[in-house]
Every structure is written in structure tokens, then in C-alpha cells.
Write the C-alpha cells for this entry.
Amino acid sequence: MRTVETVDAMAVQNLSDWIVEEGLARNNLDVLIQGFSEGVAELGIPLVRMHVSIAALHPTVKGYGGYWWRNRGFVAEEYERASLPRVGWATSPLRVMLEDGILAMRHRLDGNAPLEFPVLEEFREEGGTDWVGRLVRFGEAGTQSGLPGMLLSWLADRPGGFSDADIATLDRLVPRLGLACYRIALKRAAEDLLDAYVGTDAGHRVLSGQIERGAATRLYSVVMVADLRGFTNFADETLGEDVLASLNETLGELADIVDAHKGDVLKFLGDGFLAIFSLEGRDPAVVCAEALAAAEEMRAANGRLNMARGAAGKAPLVVDVALHLGEMMYGNVGSNRRLDFTVIGPAVNEAARIEALCQPLGEQILVSESFAAASGETLRSVGTHQLRGVARSQELFTR
């Protein structure tokens, strides 16, 4: 007959194996933490609550994680860079651990003695008897990393709290949990960074293995070129910090509109950007309607921004937008060591030439013949024009 100790040891090993298998097989932190917490509770450890938080590599999100409560399950959280600190974070023991580099902390909550941290008083009121925290580093101590590690905490509700054997079991499992979370965090960081720097669709293609120089696919798509008119003069007359702030404000809002209409911003071009609205598996008229709606919303948003800029005594930044429809090559271009995942081809060049005609024609939005024909929209012709470097002249349209 197996002894209790043998059964316990096997159960711990089974949970340890599950953590490794789950960390290798899936990229779901929620499932991992919920499964870990429930597995710990099934070992007989009096775990009533677990918290985990991991730093993120993302332009607007500084971290993510969540907490598990017995009989409530796991609740995910995301911590935005621009948001105020969460209620209680300033007086949290986890904040002290993170800022002071403390790897382990414990606070017994049973009894009536005053507690150092207000959140622990709340846990005691809810029946908590013992709080344990761990700071798990990703990488060597003292090294700079965008993913420095993760914070864990466990709350017990049994009289007397966690036993020494409970703590030893948790600490045995922590390195395995840390490795699993680290792998998931690295995958998420790669996705977030590629989304931010090359675009969602391009980032997905890169992560799926389309990384060989020259590897490309033919793509039939709407291409959008947006540019801020007169930006060179504005930059010459404006302090560098104000130039950057103005660009971020304007291009940020305009790019968000493209995203909302199922477009994909591939790259920022200093004072503008290049975006596509793919026709893969979609009705061309629907895609053109989305792209045109995006252009019109961009014009309206640009107008509102310029009203605010004028009220603040700042010069306006007028956005010009060109929409074209055609076939292009979508893939890797560059050197052996530095690649760009983008679109190239005559359609892209023609879109850029069309955008250059916005100012001379006094229009903020211009669309090509092929776009106008596919859209089915009633558009106003602005005449036939020669595009620089393009043999055939073509008729251009606007709203």
C-alpha cells in the first residue's frame, strides 16, 4: 500500500509535469494559473487566493496577469502604462518586493496584531491567515531586460496558515511555473512587438515562418498612402519635442481609424504611413467602402485636431490620403541581416504618386480609377492626370 507521503510526492510530481506540458503546448496564461492553483489546492495546501503579474513589452500595456480565488476561478487583468496605479498598489507588499528586489516575503495574518500593509488587513477580514509572496526573475540578477520577471502571491485560510511542507512544495513548483510563464510571456512579447512595429497581419506572417529574404506572395489589395501636408516646414520651425508630440498625436489617431476599419498599417513614413486593406476572401466593394470610410473619418479627425491646435496657437497639420486598388507583392525585402515585411510594386508607387497630387488639386482624399470602379460608390471626378514616372495617365476621383 502506498503511504500518504508517497501519494503526495506523486501528486506533486504530476502537477509539476502538467505545468511543463501546459507551458510547452499552449500560450494561455489564464489556463496555466487556474490549473496550477487548482492543482495546488488538490494537494491539500490551504490556498484560497493566488495572484500573478508579468511585465509586458507593449507600447501601451506595462503588465498583465490576474488572480485566482477558490470557488471563483481566475480573473485576468491588464495594466496600462498611461493609467493610474491600481488601488492598493502603493501600499502593497508586492510593490515593495518589486522595487527593492526582495525575492521572498511572508506575513502571518491570524491574530489581531496590526499589519504593515492595508491590503493584508483586507485579506484577514476575508478569512486569510497567511500571505506569501515571491519575486521570480527572468534572467540573471542585475541584467537589463524588458521581461525582468514575475510576481506571485499566495493566501491561505487555514488556522496557522501554510505549513513548512506547504511552502517547500510551492517553492519546488515555482521554477517550473516560472519557466512556463516565461515562455508564454516571450511569445506574447514577440506578437505584441511585431504588431506594433510591422503590423498585425505582417507580424502574424513573420511568426508563422515567412522570414526568408525574397519570400513574398501576390496580394490584391487596397493600398492607402497618408501624408501630412507641409510637414517639412512645420518641423523646421518647431522644437523637436513638439514635432514628436504632434506626430504621435496626429498619426496615432489616424492609424487607429485605419485599424477600426479592418486596415493594417504596415509602416510609418516619417510624417505619414502606408496601409493596406486586403481583399483576400472579401468582397472588393465592401473593402473599398471600409477604406473610403476610414479616409473620410481621418479627414474629420484631422479637422478636429487642427481646431484644437489652432486654439493652442499651433500650426495645422493637414492629412492627405490616396486610395488605390491593385496587385502587389507582399513579403520580405532587404538585406541578409535587416528585412522589412512590406508591399511593393507598381500599385504602391502609383498610390504614392496620387497622394502627391492632393495639394495641387486642393483635395484631401483622392482615389484611383480602379478603386472607383470596384467601390461602386458615386464619386466626383477631378480630371485625368499624369502620374510622375507612370506611363499611363488616369482619371482621379474624390467624394
